[in-house]
Specification:
2 domains; GSH_synth_subst-bd; ligase; ATP-binding; Dna Ligase, domain 1; about 475 residues; about 25% strand; alpha+beta; single chain
């Protein structure tokens, strides 16, 4: 961490005495299990058993002004990514060097080129986005990334605020509840799916969730499904893996997507974002089948490509935003959240970026074209990683200036963790959820719908909850 790192004021005075701490931790664990803030264990998998998801005992402090900035900016970011996703020339040229050296990106682009040449069957797209931020040492938020596929934890994050409200009340800190912002991420994300379903005007069609063979983050997924079934009981939801779709999926005479005879008019990908979800050609064929169909995809193949790190890096280049955003005030608002992003392509700029990273690796993070967490290379590990790559191979990565956020203090509660838990220093990453529906030239629906907070130990580089290194949290807003 940066030597100038500052500490944020805690929500409540710490430390708690051991008796009070043990009492409230026991209650909090049970509250989490009983309300679905839970996951299946990767270490001891049992489809019939859940354990609580790692969480921070009390909400972590986050600058109120920056939280509101992120909320207000989301509809604009939705529009930006929507425009990027519908600019095939920009996507293909930006990803051309990556396509040559990264098998996964190449496979996605192969599907994109196929549907472009055939003519895209469904021009309406649905995106459920999440823009992730860290505050830097001056508290100003900087964007870590924007997720365009399988943007998770909208479900569980929605119940973190009531969970923290319960915990603070048990600790006699009810006066703090006013600083916990309302979070309706689950309903906002699901309502957008149903809006897309309504646009199709096919009342017997279902919403299809694409899922992994084994789902550890089952509660977060099922919250979406169960919300739709409760709020819109006339809308069916079905779950299938890419492998199952390769076996039972087909296109109807009008290019409708049929799964075991049931039409799916909206497809929501909770899998398909990493190479491990594609065992062979069958799964890629299933992805192409979906893309060729009349179903509204979340995301479409072009939206998936628009979320790659290479595209994020290209958008940070001087003047590139003007291609997609006409208003200078909006351009400045977006540019303000960008941190330094550098191409590692085989050119003078790429060589200069490598020299920067080798000269001062602690200032940087190496990022590949991957979602799912656990893939980045940090600090002192960067030189060896770069030296092990050919000039071709490094085109599959980007270099990002590292953000040094302020720290907070709290208790991280993990299954089978120490008892009592120690008081630790933490770093929190804010995610803002957005939804947008539209075609190339028309936006039909555009909303900011909620947030999540993931918190990790200040000594940890990665912070993914599903990946096993972070914990669920909610923001306590401070001035």
């Amino acid at each position: 961490m940066c030597a100038t790192t500052k500490m944020l004021q805690s929500c409540i005075p710490f430390p708690l005495d051991d008796a009070q701490l043990m009492d409230v931790v026991e209650k909090a664990k049970d509250w989490a299990i009983m309300h679905g803030a839970a996951m299946r264990s990767k270490q001891d998998f049992n489809p019939d058993a859940l354990q609580f998801a790692p969480f921070i005992l009390t909400p972590s402090s986050f600058p109120r002004k920056e939280f509101q900035k992120a909320v207000d900016l989301q509809p604009l970011l939705n529009e930006l990514i929507h425009a990027v996703a519908h600019d095939s020339q920009f996507l293909l040229s930006t990803l051309s060097s990556t396509e040559k050296v990264d098998d996964f990106t190449r496979s996605l682009i192969t599907i994109y080129r196929a549907v472009l040449s055939e003519g895209i069957a469904q021009t309406v797209t649905l995106a459920l986005l999440r823009s992730d931020y860290l505050p830097n040492f001056s508290d100003a938020i900087k964007q870590v990334e924007i997720n365009t596929i399988a943007s998770s934890f909208g479900g569980i994050s929605t119940i973190m605020t009531p969970m923290h409200s319960y915990i603070l009340t048990e600790l006699g800190e009810q006066n703090k509840l006013v600083n916990l912002p309302e979070n309706n991420a689950l309903s906002g994300l699901c309502d957008a799916m149903v809006e897309a379903w309504k646009l199709q005007a096919r009342p017997s069609a279902a919403i299809l969730f694409i899922v992994e063979d084994v789902t550890y983050n089952i509660c977060d997924q099922r919250f979406h499904e169960f919300y739709i079934r409760k709020t819109y009981p006339h809308v069916a939801v079905i779950r299938r893996t890419l492998t199952q779709i390769s076996q039972t999926g087909k296109l109807g005479t009008g290019k409708e997507l049929l799964i075991d005879g049931t039409e799916a008019s909206v497809v929501y990908f909770r899998a398909g974002y990493e190479p491990g979800h594609y065992y062979g050609q069958a799964e890629w064929d299933a992805r192409l089948l979906i893309e060729r169909s009349l179903a509204i995809k979340c995301p479409s193949i072009q939206y998936h490509l628009a979320g790659t790190k290479k595209v994020q890096q290209a958008l940070a280049k001087p003047n590139v935003l003007r291609r997609f955003v006409g208003d200078e005030t909006k351009i400045e608002a977006i540019r303000d959240i960008f941190t330094g992003l550098y191409s590692l392509d085989q050119d003078e700029g790429g060589d200069e970026a490598v020299a920067l990273a080798l000269a001062d690796p602690e200032r940087f993070v190496l990022k590949p074209q991957r979602e799912g967490g656990g893939n980045n290379v940090y600090g002192e590990d960067i030189p060896a990683a770069l030296k092990a790559m050919s000039r071709d191979e490094r085109s599959a990565w980007i270099l990002m200036e590292r953000i040094f956020p302020p720290l907070s203090t709290g208790y991280m509660i993990r299954p089978n963790g120490p008892s009592p838990p120690p008081l630790v220093k933490l770093v929190s990453e804010l995610g803002i959820f957005g939804t947008i529906i539209g075609s190339k030239d028309t936006v039909l629906y555009n909303k900011q719908v909620g947030h999540m907070l993931r918190t990790k130990l200040s000594t940890s580089n990665e912070g993914g909850v599903a990946a096993g290194s972070g914990a669920l949290d909610s923001p306590y807003l401070i001035d």
